[in-house]
Amino acid sequence: MDIEQIERAVQLIERSQLHEVTIVEGGQSIKVVNSTNNSQRHRLPFEADNDGNLAKDDSNESAQVYATHVGIVHLSADAVTDNLVKKGDRIEKGQTVCFIEELTRLLPVVSEHDGIVSDIVVEDGGGVEYGQPILDVIIH
Question: Are 7 and 15 in contact (CB under 8 A)?
Fold first, then answer.
């Protein structure tokens, strides 16, 4: 294994939702443990009120919803309907927040968090990589 392959593997694991991966090549192996997955939840000094407006509050944390596949992101179910989620929307764990078109399939991306969407960090129709952030979420 060369150092560039190891660096790429570490970067991919840091951006993913995986906790641990062991890579074996020939007689060599390397174990990568993702300790940043939980540290990516950093404290934000904001909370959204019932109208979706952000207000100062020190009791909330933020998290991100990540791409689960490589492909084209679609924020709505089709070209004529509204986006599944918008900035300020309250989302629930297990809720479909967008789709990723992989080859000819539309694969749902579901939230792993309850909270409020604070930002959509991808553009509809844009390409995404596995583990790339799609949404920022303020969790409670």
Answer: no
- What digits encode the pLDDT tens for the residues 14-35? 777 666 777 777 777 777 776 6
Q: Give the model confidence (pLDDT) of 70-87 as tens digits.
A: 999 999 988 788 899 999
Residues 6+ apart with CB under 8 A from 63: 40, 41, 112, 113, 115, 136, 137, 139
Give Cβ neighbours of residue 49 (< 8 Å, ≥ 6 apart). 55
Sequence-ordered list of residues with C-beta below 8 angstroms from that of 136, at least 6 positions apart, any chain: 62, 63, 64, 117, 118, 119, 120, 121
At 44, is the pLDDT very low, low, confident or very high (cuts 50, 70, 90)? very low
Asked if CATH classification 2.40.50.100 holds for the domain at 43-139, the reply, yes or no, is yes
Q: The pTM is what?
A: 0.57
Q: Provide CB contacts within 8 A for 12, sequence distance 6+.
A: 130, 131
Q: Where are the domains of the chain?
A: 1-39, 43-139
Are residues 63 and 140 in contact, defined by beta-carbon separation less than 8 angstroms? no
